[in-house]
Design a protein that fits this description.
single chain, alpha/beta, Rossmann fold, 2 domains, seven-stranded mixed beta sheet, 9 helices, 7 strands, binds S-adenosylmethionine
């Protein structure tokens, strides 16, 4: 039977270390964990979701695909029901970047280099990168994937050696810039378009907020510089 795992989730799966014990936070249908176990990529999956209904579906799917013996299921906020010894890899996909940051902040035990974090926010990627840098997590790599006409980034992070990122780096990290993906020009276009609209919107406002204007203008300038550098090196 064919399970509907998206290219977006396959990107997350490709970053899971072989044999990992995985927490799939916000698992919904549970297909990521099921696929990882079927492929032999993971040895165990703890699947959690805030809502009972999706989790019941995930349980049912795991029985259908024969992976239920290597999975546990929790109705919980983030990692609240999962213990530090239970997993070594944490996947958070399909939630907002601020929500992912909240989930990590509420589980202080993830501040340990033994955990591999695989994070694929749907929105507010800049907020997530800002949080990671300020909390001391280092981004090890980023990948881009296109799915259903949308572009997503997935990052791998680990505690230790992180540093606060500049506004521009929060939108386009050095690791994403170095990923070598043919999707990078389209990603640049998306980020630059969004920042240009934001800066113009703040400038038009009756009472422009100085701190916001400084942050977004700085991010825009930095990403424009990155684009110029990228274009100049891509030509050579
Ligand atoms: C859009 S779905 C993404 C499902 C899957 N991870 C994916 O990427 O395709 C988001 C899921 O996250 C769950 N969710 C949202 N906030 C959560 C939280 N704080 N803790 C656990 N699950 C959460 C929602 O109930 C929903 O099932």
């Amino acid at each position: 039977m064919k399970r509907p795992i998206s290219d977006r989730l396959l990107c997350c799966a490709s970053l899971v270390p072989p044999g990992a014990r995985v927490a799939d936070v916000g698992c919904d249908h549970g297909y990521l964990g099921i696929w990882l176990l079927e492929q032999g990529r993971a040895s165990y999956v703890a699947a959690s979701d805030l809502r009972e209904k999706p989790l019941e579906k995930a349980r049912e799917n795991s029985r259908l695909f024969g992976t239920a013996d290597r999975m546990d299921f929790y109705v919980a906020d983030g990692l609240a029901a999962i213990g530090p010894e239970q997993v070594d890899t944490i996947v958070c996909a399909g939630m907002g970047g601020d929500c992912v940051a909240h989930i990590l902040e509420e589980a202080p035990w993830v501040r340990d280099p033994r955990y591999t974090l695989i994070l694929q926010p749907q929105t507010s990627g800049n907020d997530l990168r800002r949080y990671l840098g300020e909390a001391g997590f280092a981004i090890e790599q980023e990948q881009l994937v296109q799915d259903g006409g949308f572009l997503y980034f997935t990052l791998v992070a680990r505690y230790g050696g992180g540093r606060p990122l500049t506004p521009g780096e929060q939108y386009l990290s050095p690791q994403l810039l170095a990923c070598g993906s043919p999707l990078l020009p389209a990603y640049f276009d998306r980020v630059l378009g969004a920042l240009e609209r934001t800066v113009a919107g703040i400038r038009r406002g009756a009472c422009p907020n100085d701190a916001k204007l400084t942050y977004y203008s700085c991010a825009l300038q930095e990403v424009q510089e990155m684009r110029r550098y990228y274009d100049s090196t891509a030509d050579t």
